[in-house]
Amino acid sequence: MKSLIFFFCLIISNSFLAQEKPCLRESDRIRINEAFKIEEIYGNKIWKDWHNVPFAIDLITDSTEFLIRHPVPTPDFKLLGYDSTLQSNIFYRKRILNQHFLATFPAFGKLSTIVVGIPENTKKSSVAWIITLLHEHFHQLQMAQEDYYTSVNELDLSGGDNTGMWMLNYPFPYEDKNVNAAYDSLKIALTSALKSLDAINKNALIKDYLKKKKLFKNLISEKDYKYFSFQLWQEGIARFTELNITKIIIDNSYVFSDEVKKLNDYVELKAFYDDYYTNEINNINGLSLYNSKRVCFYAIGAGEGFLLDFDNPGWKDLYFNNKFFLEKYY
Hints:
14 helices; about 10% strand; 6 strands
């Protein structure tokens, strides 16, 4: 009788453990697969060798982290199985990282990994979340450059901080009235240039923007300008890439899969892009240096990406070889 009871308990225990094995939601698989597909078709048409960079993702749900397309998982991740749709082994562990994360960094070993919460926790619609994955994948391309970390260190902006948090917390003179006035002139000039790229006086407007940018540079310290330029180069061009790849797939009549279209928050790609681009242009003028801090630099950098596309279509060939100062690409 004791043996029978033990055997019965063992069956129940094993069944319970089997039920505890997590499951990647179908909606998350659909969104991730769509980002993979877009990058595979269009990635290299925007940035050379982009497709060669691992598209590693740590998807964070409320209870579990799922590691996807990561070649060397850390020992705390267990194999869930192979997903033929995502063309990857899926690994999992109990959630450790913040479920609201939306960042890219070497979270597990040396490989830069997109660490991202589900759409519900990152406050993004399905289409916005898919496109944001491509933004973060561009950060993986940036960080995959052999001299990226060396070049960043040579900027000498960390102030002894080895965690990378200086990128968020650098003491830029956001509250200085003169700096704010110069920044306001700069952002007005950039908006005017972007709204007049088809006008006769477009070249004069671009020159005026670059003049205002130089005045801004001369008003702040060399290190402050390095930080400003670094943010334009890294975050601004990542946001430009996000918008740029969206425009390219629209121009090429890309159609989302039926599975994406069936998601309850699906929006048409053209409507999404028009709203996003308009909002980004509005942010250039609408965000103040005093209130928005470094976040307003992202919109400036995205705007410069579009300006560079018009002024020098070959500027992307310079981007990784001559880092951090966008004015060198005009």
